[in-house]
Design a protein that fits this description.
With 224 residues, the chain is α/β, with parallel strands linked by helices. Helices cover 39% and strands 12% of the residues. The longest helix has 17 residues.
Length: 224
């Protein structure tokens, strides 16, 4: 009999609630990027990944079209994931530096990775309705990962989404913080840390550097 978390992730994979996103995921999987022409794409909603006893939760925007939508694992198979898993490895949260596919042997320790939206959206821009339809899965992650205490929000979309989930769960904060890299806020029993998303738009321009990302996970480790 599957665990509640395993069943939750199976429900995510089977979800067809947002026709536009499903159509896009399947189209990308059919057409494929030239570099991955010989690979079978995942092409459906992507579940969370990591240590079921994690105290650290990482939340992104959504799967990448040729990253997680191809590999079936969050932040796996693209440059964003390369940056993220290197930083997690340096901080002791990941067993290896590379993230190439679901069967590459990578394990997370005391960390779990999720997202606000579970399907790759066109231009990385889910609609408000699609966000609202999907965010309940993130809320369920909090229910099924009871040891979570620190949440690293990768980008403003994740920062706002996590706060919405926690507010709807009845948690409060005495001081709201604006999103920024290194922003920190206590929200109920959770400490939220903001981080620029490790997208190419941020890493190629130098808006996010590896020392900046390392500082976020060093702080997360201190809090834990």
């Amino acid at each position: 009999m599957p665990s509640r978390l395993a069943q939750h992730n199976a429900n995510i994979i089977a979800c067809r609630s947002c026709p536009r996103l499903i159509a896009w995921c399947e189209q990308v999987a059919r057409e494929r990027k030239a570099a991955y022409r010989d690979q079978q794409y995942w092409g459906k909603p992507v579940p969370g990944f990591g240590d079921t006893k994690a105290r650290l939760l990482l939340v992104g925007l959504a799967p990448g079209a040729h990253g997680a939508n191809r590999t079936g694992r969050m932040f796996t198979g693209d440059r964003s994931g390369d940056w993220l898993y290197r930083a997690l490895h340096r901080a002791g949260f990941a067993s290896q530096v590379a993230s190439t596919g679901r069967d590459d042997g990578l394990k997370l320790a005391d960390a779990y990775i999720s997202a606000v939206v579970r399907c790759a959206p066109p231009d990385n821009k889910p609609s408000t309705e699609e966000r609202d339809q999907c965010i309940g899965y993130l809320a369920r992650d909090f229910d099924l990962l009871p040891r979570i205490r620190v949440v690293v929000c990768l980008g403003k979309f994740a920062w706002d989404g996590v706060q919405r989930v926690l507010k709807e769960k009845g948690h409060t904060t005495s001081r709201r913080a604006a999103f920024g890299h290194g922003a920190e806020m206590l929200f109920g029993p959770y400490t939220l840390i903001g981080s620029y998303h490790p997208s190419q738009q941020n890493t190629f321009t130098g808006r996010l550097t590896e020392p900046m990302l390392d500082a976020v996970f060093t702080r997360a480790r201190e809090l834990l």
